[in-house]
Amino acid sequence: MNRSLSYVGILICVNSVLSYRAYQNLIPNGDKVPHPCNKRQTWEGVGHRQNEGGDEQNPFGIDFQQFREWNKKLCLLDSDGDGRYNGEELGDPDCIWKTQYDNVHLRTTNLSHPGICEPLDSSLCRKRAWLSCEASIDDCPSLKEKDTRNITVKMPKRKVPRQTTTYRCLLFEFPQDQDYHIVATKPVIDNKHVMHHILLFGCDESVEDITEDMNEPFTCGMIASPKCSSVIGIWSMGMSGECSHNSSGFRIGKNGFRKGALQIHWNNPDLYEGMTDASGMTIFYTHVLRQYDAGIMIVGQYWIDLQPKKKRVVVTGECSPECSDKLIEDEIYITSGYNHMHYLGKFFHRPIHYLETPVFFYNLFD
Ligand SMILES: *[C@@H]1O[C@H](CO)[C@@H](O)[C@H](O)[C@H]1NC(C)=O
Ligand SMILES: *[C@@H]1O[C@H](CO)[C@@H](O)[C@H](O)[C@H]1NC(C)=O
Ligand SMILES: *[C@@H]1O[C@H](CO)[C@@H](O)[C@H](O)[C@H]1NC(C)=O
To answer: Which terminus of the chain is more exposed, N or C, with fewer CB under 10 A?
Structure first.
């Protein structure tokens, strides 16, 4: 019984991987639609709001669902309202393409996304924008410095348990010969169907009372362990990585964190069996120390009551000056902020300026 269940699980899983690719074959140039934020990359799930498919449909996906095939009507619609009709965007301006097996000559240059109003920064599209181009981690200036080194910490490949939520942790050592600053992190995602978030923790000086083996994953809770509770790196769905503000970094090494813990959160709501994962994180560090040590402070509550049938619910929380005085003794500069909304949030990204420092707010739909 178990065996056949697991077989079904795998089938469904493979099926959902294939679904958006199967749709790609139903529209002209379906596998060549450029990503509006990065023209060298393609947008895989053309009808979806997320590049990798899944999630909600975009305006083109909604129109496609009406016809379930490429035809003249769908071709002549301008789903995203940017002034180019779908056929023009997808390289079939004469609306003659039928299937991928035709020899219809498609234009393969000057393609654009039929579900996203482009150019994104035009006044027309800003009004309709639902996509924001978060700067890619690959543009992080620190990655281009010659003194930046990296280590990749990955979970050894393990079975993902048949349960909704699993936290797994792995202890490892940072280089300890001198002080370094971590200046960027980049996720290494092995199985994107289960990866929900990755946290990197710094461990206090003595980790003697941690009984787990180094480099052997163990089941953990929301924090890796009482000794490894300082968050120094975050990845969550929708992020391409993290780039520290150029005047700060997380101190590791001789006088900083010498040991770290990687925590991954697997999400398996459909209780599939037989999936594996070996995700992790690449950590970029440098001996060229920045002016400030960085830290991450997590505040908030576990529960928010959303009253029914309200268009708008405002929840405020505050940390009184008496309280923050105890928490923060020195002057600090805020370089970025994240809203972590679990299943309820929608991704958005809003840089604001504060203390002459750009502050980035992310809503993570993790
Ligand atoms: C691309 O298409 C747009 C709109 O259809 C057109 O104005 C532009 O000239 C085209 N660019 C090239 C390089 O063909
Ligand atoms: C990590 O460093 C190695 C050696 O310098 C380099 O070859 C590799 O590309 C780096 N990895 C990443 C992800 O940048
Ligand atoms: C740091 O970034 C700011 C812009 O945010 C820039 O003006 C400055 O030159 C950068 N400093 C270094 C050392 O790269």
So the answer is: N
Q: Is the dihedral of CA 254, 230, 207, 148 positive or negative?
A: negative
Q: How far is the C-alpha of 160 from the C-alpha of 266, rounded, in Å?
A: 7
The residue among 47, 46, 29, 44 whose CA lies nearest residue 102 is 29
The pTM for the full model equals: 0.65
Interval between CA 142 and ligand 1 midpoint (Å): 36
Alpha carbon distance 212, 201 (integer Å): 15
Q: Judging by beta carbons within 10 Å of its beta carbon (0-12, 13-18, 19+), is residue 359 exposed, middle or buried?
A: middle
pLDDT lower than 50: segments of the chain: 1-18, 347-366
What is the predicted pLDDT for the residue at 200?
A: 95
pLDDT, residue 336, reads: 78
> Which domains, and CATH codes, for the chain?
137-298 (2.60.120.310)
Write the CA distances from 201 to 148, 154, 240, 283, integer angstroms.
Answer: 20, 14, 19, 12
